[in-house]
Amino acid sequence: MTEDPGAARRDAAVRAQYEAYPYPPRDPQDERRRLITGSPSNLPEVDHYLFGGARDWRQPFRALFAGGGTGDGCIMLAQQLADRGVPAEVVHLDISAASQAVARARSEVRGLANLRFVQGPLHDVADLAPGPYDYVDCCGVLHHLEDPPAGLAALRAQLAPDGGMGLMVYGVLGRTGVYPVQAALRSLAGDDDLPARVALARRLLGDLPDSNWLRRNPFLNDHLPEAQGEEVPAGKLFDLLLHPRDRAYDVPQLLELLSGAGLAPVEFIVPMQYRPEAYLQDGGLIGRAAALSQAERWALAENLAGNIRVHVVYAAPAERAAEAAARPGRPTVRPLPNGIDMAALARAVARGKGMFKADLSGLPLSLPLPAGAERLLPLIDGRRDLNQLAAAMGMDWFTFKALFDKVYRVLNGLNLLLLRG
Ligand SMILES: C[S@@+](CC[C@H](N)C(=O)[O-])C[C@H]1O[C@@H](n2cnc3c(N)ncnc32)[C@H](O)[C@@H]1O
Asked: What spacing in Å lies between the alpha carbon of 134 and ligand 1's midpoint?
């Protein structure tokens, strides 16, 4: 992997961690009762953000999951592709045989035939699992590499020119408190083996003073048994507090990482979290924020929010990123609910007198929806296009479009409404 002995030691330690503690911990038998969905890599999102909501799914599709772990993302996408009958290949590439064994067992329980497993470092993707790929997922991995720009460049080189990526890296502010505890554990751990380190972390968590920033960060509770409803699994604790190589990114650092690989963000998930006006009341401040560049607004939102623990971003080759996402322009576009019951949402909005109560990673928000939204929402069923919705509402196109755009801004902002067509 690398000639620097320190880096080689860290590479080995990262691999040893994921052999001992595949992440996230999953029981393959659970595939019989549920499909885990989320961002990035959810098929309707991939279509919306990277293919203008208009990909022809009859055409072959290749996806790479770099550092696919125990398989959450690749199982979801492989299942969604299989359900739609897409001629697809989904490649799971990971250094950890133990993690890959869990992902493979999950795919076997589901009877998925479109997954292929390749063991090895993602830097060697060109030899081990060459592209071109229409889609590359790298979720929770780049921030553990010795050289994240080189890792991302290796993946980018395997991306088809009209393809895109779904990435997740840690956020600086939302992880406030994590790194001092990591440093404390490093200094206390001596030569302890991995299970002994986990035991040490459990003891330290029970002994931190009230002033400690990890204790004081209410938005981070992965390490708290109360929040998990049970003892925190060893692998989760290790990943958060004992990782041998771990860094976080603020928005400008992430943009630099992307641009170094010839990529640009299409959208952060959820988009609303990256809008300064979501956090501000003062019209003058909102006006000043609106005058900033897009990159400055994303960075400002992160600084205002303070609770963004991870950055999930869909990214595309820089030359096509601005055009990659779907837009609610044409009357033939179909709005798709993304994991939400629109009828229930309409009832909640009616109860809230037009206000929609949302939660941005633990920050409650009350968002106004325009009059008529409670009537429109239950009509959005993923089948009607905008034209048909206008007719069902008994509205002319322009009146309808003004209403729809306001509803879309809020619901797409929360990643609850996507487009197709
Ligand atoms: C935190 S887990 C994330 C798993 C998965 N992407 C997810 O989001 O559920 C990180 C994964 O990256 C893998 N990994 C770390 N460094 C790697 C490298 N250089 N090449 C390939 N995989 C790597 C680990 O083995 C582990 O399975």
From this structure: 20
For residue 91, the CA-to-ligand 1 centroid distance in Å is: 14
Element holding 283 (H helix, E strand): helix 283-290
Question: What are the CA-CA distances from residue 333 to residues 52, 86, 284 (Å)?
Answer: 11, 21, 35
pLDDT of 97 strictly over 70: yes
Which protein residue has the closest C-alpha to ligand 1 atom 1?
140
Q: Quick check: is 329 in a domain?
A: no
Identify the domain containing residue 188 by its residue range: 174-241
Q: Is the CB of 139 under 6 A from ligand 1?
A: yes
pLDDT range class, residue 421, cuts 50, 70, 90:
confident
Question: What is the bridge-based pairing of β-strands 88-94 and 115-119?
Answer: parallel
CATH code, 304:
3.40.50.150
Mark whether 113 and 199 lie in a shared domain.
no
Residue located nearest, by CA, to atom 25 of ligand 1: 96
CB neighbours of residue 216 within 10 Å: 12
Amino acid letter at 337?
Answer: P
What spacing in Å lies between the alpha carbon of 238 and ligand 1's midpoint? 14
pLDDT tens digit sequence for 198-219:
999 999 999 999 999 999 999 9
Q: If you average pLDDT over residues 74-81, what whole number do you get? A: 98
